[in-house]
Amino acid sequence: MAGTAIMTLRVDPDLLAALKERAAREGRSVSAEVIRMIERDVEPPRPKRAKRTSTMGMFPDFDAPTLDEFKRLRRRFSALVSPARRGRRFG
Questions:
Q1: pTM (predicted TM-score)
Q2: Kind and range of the H or E element at 53?
């Protein structure tokens, strides 16, 4: 299989028997069951993406930013308009 590696490990015979029983119960091969267990217990959960909210009116196909995106942009803008710059007048 492309993109996979082979790993050899030593397993207690009783543990292997229990693993074979579990894999059979789940309808998987031992290898597939081990991979499923590793993915569930080792890989960090993938972050869920917030559903995008479309805008209405003049820009119906424009995706509105999420609240977190809006807050991040607002912080960046506020940093540009720092207290040192607030005293200056434009023009």
A1: 0.45
A2: strand 53-54
